Every structure is written in structure tokens, then in C-alpha cells.
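Review form for a predicted model. The reviewer records the input and the model, then writes brief findings.
Reviewer: anonymous (R2)
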Amino acid sequence: MGCIITVHQPPGFEHWRTAMPPVLQAKCEWHRACKFTVLNLPTMFRHYFQIAWRNLMKRKFYTLINVAGLAIGMTCCMLISVYLYHENSYDQYHTKRDRIYRVVQTFRNVEPGTKPVAATPKDYQVWGCAPLGPALQADFPEIERVVQFMSPNSLLLQNGDKRVQQDNLLFMDSTAFDVFSWKMINGDPHTALTAPFSIVLTKSVAQKFFGNKNPVGQALQVDNQTNFMVTGVMEDVPPNSQFTFNGLISMTTMHKFREEIFGWWGYVDFYTYLLLKENTDIKSLQAKADQFVKRRNPDDKGYGIKFEKMTDAYLHSLAIRQPGPTGSLLNVSLFLCIAIFIMLIACINFMNLSTARSLERAKEVGVRKVLGVRPTSLMWQFLFESILLSLAAAIIAIVLAKPGIALIERLSGKEIAYVNFFNPWLFIAMAGFAVVVGIGAGIYPAWFLSGFRAISVLKGKFNPASGSVSLRKALVVFQFTLSIALIAGTIIVFNQLKYLNRHDLGFKKDQMLIINFEDDSKVQQNIEAIKKAIADQPGVVSVAASRAVPGEFLPNAGTQIQTPDGQMGFRIPLIYEIDFDFIPLYHIPLIAGRAYSRTHLTDSAQGMIINEAAAKLYGYTNPADAVGRKFDQWGRKGTIVGVVKDFNFRSLHQAVEPLTLRYGYPNALSRISVAIKGDNIPSTLAHVRTTWDKMAPQRPFMYHFLDESFNAQYQADQHFGQLFTFFSCLAICIACLGLLGLSTFMAQQRVKEIGVRKVLGSSVSGIVVLLSKDFIKLVLIAIVIAVPLSTWAMNESLKDFAYRVSVGPIIFLEAGLITVGVALLTIAWQSVKAARANPVQSLRNE
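Model under review:
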């Protein structure tokens, strides 16, 4: 198939035609009568391909390095692109997503008579109060639907002999399926959550209890007391969702349990989402928010609301108390930068090797120019070679990417959406990407090679490599600057993870067994007897009970404590509800006063313990001064009996917050902590299980170890570290491939010089130093450039941690030594090989 190009015959056309390469002259016929040229494009490209193939096969080693570097770079880009697509796809499956917003709320303390300062984004939380939803629906006609749900619950579900403590069950409004795009398999989505004691199960949970049968209309016993009717089965929530529930319970059920909380603006346990009507401007709604708050909740001067797009929840929200997982926009940006860095390094390798090998192709260019080939034709020839290499690398990248995604899932701990690698659109996209990369990597070498002067080349008076040395050195410095930054980043990430695991938290978490009985009333009523029975088992050191344990969710409590001036100051610290044995069990140090004691009869009703941060919150610079001061919290009044040293009851992402530790009555407890000896844990665990089954047969024995659950808070950080290290290592490998190719070429170019030096008495070590020192100088320059850039970038990435390692010179010294070591290892083999070669072989032609 040919391409017809119509032209008028210009003067000297015959000279232009005869100047073409002979193979093209044979295919280009001039018709004087019609005055047009018929140029067979397939033949032209076949000619380009033949020349490219000969050159690539003639230099197999360099071809392999270029293809390997580009293939690894493209594979990394594909994997990072899939990962970033997954991170940006959260909640995109909702068909009405552009109209769904959620309400974030702030609950700040405002002293009487003072004007509240403007709230910052970090003052807001997604967790809020129940009356807000109906009030918004009534006051704003722009709102089509309001849906509210509560914090996840864990309930004991039973069907026949199948009994499971099922977590992540939400009390949800009946409007849920009108707002969110959750697919119902069985049941009516419009009525499934209407009646009290109704429950919609996800497909996986329904199969757990009912197999493959349709469970709609069947009953599930809940907490050995109430029967819930299964009114629907829905598809499991997609993994890229902020919602992670296993079942939905009708909100009317909660109305039956605790009707009073639905009119209480001070009770916080609800999430509020809005579906706006078509063409509603959220800015107009936000403009009315302050007046709405003053009208509906006038007594709380520190209360405020704003609206946040649901699709911004995962990456762009700063609000706390999120209902589900959140990502890191900073991490997404870092991985995007890594993808760009990796491709830059791969392209730099290609440019360096192409320009370094220019001397080998100088005579080819000179001869072809003498034969009349234009520089533009030469440019297209060389670009065709780079595109051909890039297309070969793209094919390899597609093959490597499929198993690579499985690896990324394991390293990231996320279920990434499956990518169809046989999708024709993927091949088209990769082909386009390969062409862009080929042009980007080959444009400078093509321009450089095609610009040689034919006469100078053929007379042997032109050294084409000399003009590219400075650029080549600059590119080597650039790629190793990126490599050093990545190495330093990897060291800092793992130092931070090590710091998180070794930091003194201020309490004992090792060999701590946690039994979760989830507010079981029979356990609560018999809690002291159960604790004593467990404490009597071999291998058990001590036992305590509490509402929560370190690392778990804690509520806030509006609390008045007498300040140094004698006034009752109102603040909203966090609250732990604990028993007499909790503080000694966890080895939490007291710095003032005393712990709860059974010998003080009023402690359970009139005593309170706070931490140092809470003492400071109420104005006490000396924590001991807070002891004996009055308090009023949740209907309980009394005095502060002790102050504990600040301990990290949450992850080290957060500074220690003000905390009150108040005695918890049995009906408020849901955890039993068991300190055990470490010499025979399986035996101790078996004894505790046997005791539990005997004392609480109605409740499954559910346990975990505190160190495992507490460290799980850093799981996302660990996955980030693994991914960062993986891609950093690949980037360094690509840089080393380029260094290997350059060092090999340089050794070949200096083979006669090496021969002369050996004849004159140079040692192998001296020649190795000679060949290596230029590259090591470039690496050292790269270290100097990388230090300030890496320091800034890593300080930014560690801002999320309240407790973090310092980014000091030692880290960059380590990164520099690693880089120099890797560079030396890369070029050592070729340098030693060249130094040990027989000089007779290189000098016999002289």
C-alpha cells in the first residue's frame, strides 16, 4: 500500500532524487507528465527497520541494557499508575457521587463571654450528633435525601448452631439505598431498612450463616436476646470504599433502644450524608450554615458545620473520626514523583549510551550524508531505532506487569482492581506511551548524531563524543541525585518504622492478652468472679477490666474541673473507663496522688484520675496541684485523686491528648486485659479459654494480643515503606544498568591507553582507580546536590507523625556510602576485566 505525494517539479529535482539512498531511488519514480512522486511508505519503514535491526544486533550488550532499563521503567510506571488509579477511585462507584456530600462538625470549647475564633480544617470531625440530619432536611429544600448511620457495632449473631461475633454492623437510615449505589441481591432496597429489628447482610456474611439459600424472611438471634429479621442481601462493599460494613441494621431499631439520643445535640455518635438536588450549588448551602447552627443549636457557641464532598473523603479530608479508611495525598504525590523519576533515569540511560557511542556511528553518518541523505532523514532513522527499542520494552513491561500487580497488592495490603491485560485499549495506550518515551529518549541523540559534518568525520578530524561529555556527566549526576534521594528516603522510612516499634509508650503492652466480650450483660454482672477465675490460672500474672484498651477508640466527655483560680473550667477531654486493677496492670506511672484503691470506698463514685496533658489543659503547670480539685463529668461529681504520666494510648501519629481515667461500673466494661508470662503462652491460653467457656458459655472466646493490635495502627506506614523500598530499588537498578553500560563503553574506548599503561608498569589496582574515579566524582557531586532536596522532602513526609526521627547527616552519609558502594560494584567487574586484559592484544595493531 503506497502513499501518493503530489508535488511540482522544482529546479534541481533530479539532483535531489539521485541523492536519495539507492534503496529508496528504486522505489521512487518521477513521472514528468503527471508531476507527482509515488513513495512506497511500507518499503521506507522496512528499510528503516532493517538498518535499525542490524545496528541493534551488532551491539547486543547495549541493546539489552537499553531495553532492560526502559522495560523496568515502564513496568514501574504501569504498576504505580494502577496503584494511583486505585487510590483515586475510592467511592467513584456511586452513580450519584457528584451530588453526595457529608457534614463535618466541630465541637470546640468557648469560654463564656469570649468570641470563638475561626475553626481550622483540623478542628472538624465527621462524627456528629443525631438531630442534625432531620434539621437539615427540614430547613434546606435543596437537599433531596439525608442518610445517617452510627459507629460500627460488633454483635453476636446466631442461626442454629452457627454463632459468630460479627463486627462492622451499622445502624443505618432507610434512605441509604436511595443515596448510595449498593446493589441489593435479595429484598427490596426501598423498604429493607424501614421496620425495627431489620437487618441487611452482605453476601459474604449471608453465606456464612445461611449458605447459598435466600435468607430473606429468616431470623437471626442477636446477643442471645433479640431476633432480627433478615430483610435483604446486598453485594459486598467494593474494596475502594470508605464504607467497610458487613451488615446494615435499621435505624428504627436504635430508636427502640435509645430514643432519647435522637434529640440530643450533645450526644455524638452519628455520621450525616446528604444527597443534593440537581444543579444545587453547595456554596449557597454553606453560606447558610452559620445561621442554621445559631437557629438550631444556639446554646453551643463552639459548634459549627461545613459540607465536604464524599469523593474527597479518602485523600483530601483533614477531618478526624473518619467512618472508614483514608489515604495519604502526600504518599500519592511521592509515588507519582517516583514514577517520573524512574522514567527519567531510564531515558537518561538511553541518551547517555547513545551519545557515548556516537563515535562508532560517526562514519556511518558521514557516508550516508555523502550519499545525499538529509539530516532530517537521519534524525527519523535514529528516532525510529529508539521507538523500536521502546516498543520492545513496552511489550516486556506488559508481560511483567501482570505478576507485578499481585506483588503490589501484597506490598500495599490492598485489593487492587483487576486490570485486563488483554484489553486492546491497554495495548493502544502502551504503544502510544512507548512512542512518546522513544521520542523523548531519542530526540537528543538523533539530533546529535544527525548533525555530524560529513567531511570532518571522513577525514578523521572530528570526535563527536567530545561535544557530549559535559551533557553526559550532567545526566549521570542528575540520575544519581534521584537515586541517592530515593535511598535516603528508604533509610528514613525504615528508621521511622523502627522508631515506632521501639518507642517507649509509657505502658506495658507485651504479653498482654485482651478478651473482648462486647458489653455482654451476663459477663458484666459476673465480671469480678470471671477476673478472679482467670487470675487463678497458671501463667497469668494479673487481670483488669475496662471499656477500651490502648489503640482502640475513645469517646470525648464534656468535663468540668476546678482550675487554679477556683472556677469550674469546661473542656472536652477523652475518657477511659477502667477498674481498680487497670493502672497497675499496665504499669502506668503515677506522678502525683494515687491510683484507684479498694480501700478507699469513695473512689468508685467520687474519684477521678487524669493525665499530665489534662492537667495542663485545665491550667496546672505542676500536675500535683490538680490533686484534690473538684470535677463534674457525666453526672458524677468528686475530686481528682491522682495524675498519671502521659502515655501513648494512641498511635505515634498523634501527640498525647488530655485524658480522664474514671472508674467504670460493670455495665460500662467490654474488655478484660490479662497479663501473662511469656514462657508457655499456648498452655496459658488454653487454661484461660477453658475458664472462659465455663464462666461465660453464652459468649465465644474472642481474644487478641495487645502488641499486635496496637502495632496494626502502623500497618499503612509499613505498607508504604515496603512499596517505597521496592520502587526505589528498581530505580537504583536502572541507574546502575546505565552506569554499567557507560563504564563498559569507556573501558573499550580506552583499551589501547590501558595497554600502554600496563606495558609501562601500571598495576591492576591503579588502572581500576583510573577507570572508576571519574564516575565516583560524579556520584559524590550527586550526593552534595541530593542532601538538601532529600532533607526537605522527607521532613515534609514525616509531618504526619507527632513523634518522628530526625533527618540528620548520618542518614545521608549512609545513603552516600551505599550509592558509592553500588556504583563501585557496578563498574568494578568491567574495570578489573579491562585492567587484567593482555596488553599485547590491544597494541598489536599499532
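Findings: The CA atoms of residues 207 and 213 lie 8 Å apart.
Further findings: The first strand starts at residue 3 and ends at 6.
Recommendation: see findings above.
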